Amino acid sequence: MGDTTADSAMDAVQRRLMFEDECILVDKNDCVVGHESKYNCHLMEKIESENLLHRAFSVFLFNSEYELLLQQRSATKVTFPLVWTNTCCSHPLYRESELIEENALGVRNAAQRKLLDELGRAGPVVSKA
């Protein structure tokens, strides 16, 4: 993702979010230790040399018939374009509402934000951690 080929493949919105969104950095015990841009969090050299770990989540949305809603990633995604994947995945951001530790409320808030953004609706998010 750090090379110019991958960078040039990003659309304007994706590029802006990669540099503006601040992921939550954590240690191996999931304790918050700081924040860093989404772009830097995904650079292999940073991950390997600085041991950058960050929070992420994955949502699997089932209907009443136990069918899983999948979605196909956009052709403009830098990683895994056009691949079928889970309902929604992303990162809680370094902001007050998504840093709440109790009952994983911060991650739940982030999941609601992304479900609304990607699917146009927010639903109940049940954590099975």
UniProtKB/TrEMBL annotation:
CDD domains reported in the protein's UniProt record: NUDIX_IPP_Isomerase
Positions of the Nudix hydrolase domain: 52-129
Family matches, as Gene3D superfamilies: Nucleoside Triphosphate Pyrophosphohydrolase
SUPFAM superfamilies in the cross-refs: Nudix
Known pathway: Porphyrin-containing compound metabolism; chlorophyll biosynthesis; Isoprenoid biosynthesis; dimethylallyl diphosphate biosynthesis; dimethylallyl diphosphate from isopentenyl diphosphate: step 1/1
UniProt entry keywords in alphabetical sequence: Chlorophyll biosynthesis, Isomerase, Isoprene biosynthesis
EC number: 5.3.3.2
PROSITE patterns: NUDIX
InterPro entries hit by this protein: IsopentenylPP_isomerase_typ1 (IPR011876), NUDIX_hydrolase-like_dom_sf (IPR015797), NUDIX_hydrolase_dom (IPR000086)
Stretches of the chain forming a coiled coil according to its record: none
Top-tier EC class: isomerase
Single Gene Ontology BP annotation: isoprenoid biosynthetic process
GO molecular function: isopentenyl-diphosphate delta-isomerase activity
Entry-linked Pfam families: NUDIX (PF00293)
Keyword Phosphoprotein: no
Homology family: Belongs to the IPP isomerase type 1 family.
NCBIfam families, alphabetized: IPP_isom_1
Name of the featured protein: isopentenyl-diphosphate Delta-isomerase
Organism of this sequence: Castilleja foliolosa
